[in-house]
Amino acid sequence: MIKKNNKNEKKNLAQEAYNAIRLKIFNNGIKPGQLISESLIAEELGISRTPVREAIRMLAIEGVVESRDGIGTIVKMFSFKEIKDIFEVRKALEIIAVKTSINNVSELEVSELLNKYSDISVRFEAGIAEEREFTEIDMKVHNLIITRCDNDYVKGLYNSIGLKIKLYQYVSYLNFRSSAESISQHMEILRLIKNKELEKLIIALNEHIDWSLKWYLEALM
């Protein structure tokens, strides 16, 4: 329940609602193409619909949600051009980031992620892995590359498109045919980070992001 005794109550409630909706979208609680219910969210948070409406407006400005006449507000499904543009920016940011983060990522961090991939690979083969598990661990790999870099501008720019990246990852993993290859590619990226092989890592990261774009666009067809 959101407390309503703050000085700037209206502004604070809108921000709280924004954070709550954003987190729900990030965790696939509201999926791409799905309707956002103002009344349901307001009820969940224990507030009026006014700050929820303002929060949705903030998300619309970010390009995460959009209004459809006669339907309401939905989590946005991106066009081919929008996806290509996001991938182009994402790739540039990650390649800049990895040039310094390769020296800042610990062996323990790499080992923990490799172990998670080994585990999910076994469960994938057994048919008991879920798409959210793939998106969560993949985001951890790419976020590690960003958060451990020395460039604060890269971190800020990546954060601004992070939710959009998560949304298209969810859609791409609905096509499970790509999951085994994705696991293999991410494990190779982690091994190259661990071994400090920067030139090979840049090539592998570049190829992986191009491959991800291909699979995402095919998942939309």
Q: Which terms would index this structure?
A:
221 residues, mainly alpha, Arc Repressor Mutant, subunit A, Four Helix Bundle (Hemerythrin (Met), subunit A), 2 domains, two-stranded antiparallel ribbon, 9 helices, 71% helix, globular, transcription regulation
Report on this structure:
With 221 residues, this protein is mainly alpha-helical. The protein folds into 2 domains: 9-75, Winged helix-like DNA-binding domain superfamily/Winged helix DNA-binding domain (Arc Repressor Mutant, subunit A), CATH 1.10.10; 80-220, Up-down Bundle (Four Helix Bundle (Hemerythrin (Met), subunit A)). 71% of the residues lie in helices and 4% in strands. The protein has 9 helices and 2 strands; from the N terminus they run αααββαααααα. The chain has helices spanning 9-26, 38-45, 49-61, 80-101, 107-125, 131-147, 152-172, 179-194, 198-220, and strands at 65-68, 72-75. A two-stranded antiparallel sheet has the order 1-2. The longest helix is centred in the last third of the chain and has 23 residues, at 198-220. The model has no long low-confidence stretch (mean pLDDT 86). It holds the Pfam family GntR. It comes from Clostridium malenominatum. Keywords: DNA-binding, Transcription, Transcription regulation. This is GntR family transcriptional regulator. Residues 11-78 form the HTH gntR-type domain.
